[in-house]
Amino acid sequence: MKTILKISGILLILLILCAIQPAGATDTYAKGDSIKITGTATGNPQQGLAFWVFGPNYWTRETKQVQGTDYTYELTSSKTSDLSPGQYYCIVQHPMYNGVFDVYVSGDKVVSSDGESFVISGSSKLQGSAAAYALMRLLDSPNIDDTYTTSTFIIAEPWISFSNRAEYTAGNRIYISGTTNLAPGDKLIYNVVSSSFVPTQKTQSSEFSGESGTITVGYGSPDNVWGFYLDTTNLKPDDYTVNVEKNDGSVSFTGKFTLVAPSATTPVTPAVTAVPTQNPTPSQTQPVPTPIPTQSPLPVYAVLLAVVAAFGAVGLAAASGGKSDD
């Protein structure tokens, strides 16, 4: 934010906000990916905004109009394809209240309205960070009312890596995956081919074992990710090659893995656990318990006869005793 001159007793403050997306202090982009610089600028600058980009053996300056309060500047894939790997500096310049860019390009130099300059082209040119800092020094002059914001990003050679293990069991559904510095949303084409696949004559029968398809790069941190599921039910045990490449063919990677046959297994029959015996011998048999005999109950009439007989005996004894007293 910069505060500028007081005019007719009114303090005029203009703000400029800039963002490079996707956000991140150490954003890295692959060559061939587009880079969008977006943000918000107030003050309705009639000349728009000036976008400066400095990098290894590269610089550019372009102006873009602000739509309402929003702006977008894009380094297209065709531009980044030609850029050298390295760090780049983006400076977005706002003309502020006078509506004039007070720092601009003139011939092979960048000059300011107060007479300062530095060389941007030719044998004595500044480039990369040196050019970016020289531009900021001009814009920071107290005699210049323009304001600016900065961002940095890195451009690297594109790469794709493979992060799977070396061996899987045929018949399972496996996940083939890896990482990349390609941008989220980039399209990749994958091919999984058995190593035993070879071209044959039309009249010859051939056996093909593999799969192909298209996938999309997903966001990851620190690197972006890719992956797909592979059903190996119909794939024979063999060595396989996985080739993954960007849909424009600019970068590719080849990995390998092996499908092994499932190990043979014997159906398990539940075992019957026997109760152990004390010192068993082959001829030993367990004795069969002999039932305890029971006596049949006496008939009711027999019981009655016994009672009557008992009473009869008592009576006879009493009578005998009575006669002896006489």
Task: Walk me through this protein's architecture.
The protein has 326 residues and is mainly β. The chain has two domains: 8-156, Immunoglobulin-like (Sandwich), CATH 2.60.40; 167-260, Immunoglobulin-like, CATH 2.60.40.10. 13% of the residues lie in helices and 40% in strands. It has a five-stranded mixed sheet with strand order 4-13-9-6-7, covered by helices on one side. A five-stranded mixed sheet has the order 14-20-19-16-17, with no helix packed on it. A hairpin with a 2-residue loop joins strand 10 (103-106) and strand 11. Residues 1-25, 266-305 and 313-326 have low confidence and may be disordered.
Outline the secondary-structure elements.
Layout (H helix, E strand, L loop, with lengths): L1 E6 L2 E5 L1 E6 L6 E3 L4 E7 L7 E7 L2 E7 L5 E6 L1 H4 L5 E9 L8 E4 L2 E4 L4 E3 L8 H12 L7 E10 L10 E3 L3 E8 L6 E8 L15 E7 L7 E8 L6 E9 L5 E9 L39 H26 L1
Question: What features would you highlight for this structure?
Answer:
5-stranded mixed beta sheet, 3 helices, 326 residues, 13% helix, 2 domains, mainly beta, 20 strands, disordered N terminus, Immunoglobulin-like
Short description:
The protein has 3 helices and 20 strands.
Residue stretches low in confidence (pLDDT < 50, at least 5 long) are 1-25, 266-305, 313-326
Strand-pairing-aware structural class: mainly beta
Order of helices and strands: EEEEEEEEHEEEEHEEEEEEEEH
| Helical coverage, percent range | 10-25%
CATH architecture tag of the largest domain: Sandwich
How many discrete structural domains? Answer: 2
